[in-house]
Amino acid sequence: MNRKLKVAVFNTQPPHLYFGGVERRIVETAKNLVNEVDTTVYSGTKKGFNKTTVIDGTTFIPCFSTDMLYPLDNWVFNRSISGMFGNINADVYEAHTVSGYKLLKLLKKRKISKPFIQTVHGVLADEYIQSSKSVSPSLRMKLSNVFMWHLARIEKEAAREATLIVTVSRYSAQKIVQLYDVDETKIRIVPNGVDLQRFKPTNDCEQVKDMIGGNSEHVILFVGNLIPRKGLHFLIEAAKHVIKENIETKFVVVGDGPLKNHLISYSKEQGVSDKFVFLGDVPEAMLHQLYNCADVFASPSIQEGQGISLLEAQATAKPVVAFNVSAINEVVKNKETGLLIKPDSYELANAILHLLSDKSLREKMGRSGREFVSKNFSWDICAQKMFQIYSEASELLV
């Protein structure tokens, strides 16, 4: 019997306690490869994570971090894993975003020939460029952009030094070459997946109806982090126009982040606060119910490496309205599974209204979305591609 490949994965946030796209990818990849790969995940001490845990055959080890601003938290986490270097035994190292750059430097400094995979989700330099285009950024957004610029420099250095780079879309691969000056031959594209058994069309939304406004005629759903590139101000502005024709429409925002208070205040300024429900982070078990309660899924993001919530919405047979930017047209088929439009609040409102006015179109797009995602995006497909890359990386430096 062949020995399992040992893979050490690094991510600042403990992926079994957070539910962003990065964290889901780590957990699902490890779970789907449990028979081929011995995965150990090293992550920060956040949300009370302070004890080694084994879940579905994957070992999660805490490394001291903080719960402060992400750049500082990330820096502390990187120092921690550098200090643990002698106790990390693996055939392949994989770091997500900028969660392992100090370990990579240590490998180079000590001339240790171990393969290091840098997994890039949304290219941080691209995110910085897009966020900087804001017409009137708030002080918080300006500060966020300064941090983004700093992290993008770290990601560029890590990408150039890594053995292989994995990213989630053709768009991200192009941006890595363009903005980080990386040889495209060392980039591998492995899209994220979606749990098709959990995210599927059902009538199971009774438990969350009270949370989203009871008997609203229509529900528009957003799921994601409340950060500048997600473009929630477009949705708030669009809501003004939508409710003129559909007064009973509710806008449900799932997710948390540094812009939450600002967005709540902005909804009040725009006179639509009574039409918005900011739920914050919700229990993972509740998320599929929220998708099923929606009539339309709206994603006003101005930059996406891929967009896992777009996959979840389509898997749940919901039509999508999104801006036709970055990698979104790789995961949403315009006029088949949703509507892709230019980044503009009026365009967003008109697309939402078009779908709300035509139930049969919503249902047709929903069915097409479910079929599209089922054929092209699953965690099993993602995991098997990652296994091939782990194997390739382990042989490159032999």
Topology:
Elements: E1 5-11, H1 21-32, E2 37-44, E3 53-55, E4 58-63, H2 70-83, E5 92-96, H3 101-109, E6 116-120, H4 124-131, H5 139-161, E7 164-167, H6 170-180, E8 187-189, E9 218-223, H7 232-245, E10 249-254, H8 260-269, E11 276-280, H9 284-293, E12 296-299, H10 308-315, E13 320-323, H11 328-331, E14 338-341, H12 345-356, H13 359-376, H14 379-396
Parallel strand pairs: 1-2, 1-5, 2-4, 5-6, 6-7, 7-8, 9-10, 9-12, 10-11, 12-13, 13-14
Antiparallel strand pairs: 3-4
Helix pairs in contact: 1-14, 2-3, 4-5, 7-12, 10-13
In words, what does this structure look like?
The strands form two sheets. Strands 3-4-2-1-5-6-7-8 form an eight-stranded mixed beta sheet, with helices on both faces. Strands 11-10-9-12-13-14 form a six-stranded parallel beta sheet, with helices on both faces. By secondary structure, the chain is an alpha/beta fold. The relative contact order is 0.12. It has helices spanning 21-32, 70-83, 101-109, 124-131, 139-161, 170-180, 232-245, 260-269, 284-293, 308-315, 328-331, 345-356, 359-376, 379-396; strands at residues 5-11, 37-44, 53-55, 58-63, 92-96, 116-120, 164-167, 187-189, 218-223, 249-254, 276-280, 296-299, 320-323, 338-341. Helices cover 43% and strands 18% of the residues. Helix 10 crosses helix 13. The protein has two domains: 5-193 and 378-396, Glycogen Phosphorylase B (Rossmann fold, 3-Layer(aba) Sandwich), CATH 3.40.50; 206-376, Glycogen Phosphorylase B (Rossmann fold).
